[in-house]
Specification:
About 35% of the residues lie in helices and about 20% in strands. Strand 12 and strand 13 form a beta hairpin. Bound molecules: zinc ion (ZN).
Amino acid sequence: MSRLFALSVAGLAGFLAWSQLPPPEPLKLLPVMDGVHVLEGAGGNVAVVTTDEGTILIDDKFAPNVPQIYEAAKKLSGKPIRYLLNTHHHGDHTGGNAGLAAREPMEILAHANARANMIKGAMPGVPRVSYRDSITISLGGVELQAIHLGRGHTNGDAVVYFPQKRLVHLGDLFAVAGPFVDYANGGSGIEWVATLDKVLALDFDRVIPGHGPISSKADLKAYRDKVDAMVRRMTELKRSGKSKEEALKAFDPASLGWEPGRMLNRTLPPLYDEVGR
Ligand SMILES: [Zn+2]
């Protein structure tokens, strides 16, 4: 059998496996303000920012969502997608990187730690451009600043700030259903609060969270207070001499308005280790 034939059979098998996946759920396209839309649905919220000189995407869900994201962006504006920013490295925010970049040339950017986390995790679509403190993009009269204000959800979270639009996209620094601290990738419950305080010092009105509905600055302040309450409560439990098991039993996530669930279950045990040292 020729090598070419063997390769094409392998390629066909791959194609069949791919084509047998159920099609992804339709995404919801929501207007935020002039020139800004959000794609809601599977994975993290995608912001589509259109300008006369091209489109900017913030985050890109999972690989199977690439056709939906690409077509939605093209329907909003016939202009090329020029920049794609990842708020952090997680696969529900970067899964479309490789597929989108294969469709047309675009620059993908992420914080240096997010880029390093992607390389560590052998994730596809690693951004070529990274930054430590901040980077500014000016396109078609729209200015965007991607700013790293400290640790929180991970060690590579970006705050994407549009000063003229008084808008921020926060990735999973703001996940409305409740926070997940990814300790394996440098996240910190204690520092999360300080990071959100720096976000709140910026001048903006609207917030696109990583997951959940488009929110206000007041909503973000309320979320910051709940993260702070979570850290304080766990610190009190630990300082009162409770073992980790006792502290987890005594901690009531519902008192913060968060559903006890998978993300909090993964956050509270290592939070006990982080606090009250
Ligand atoms: Zn995440």
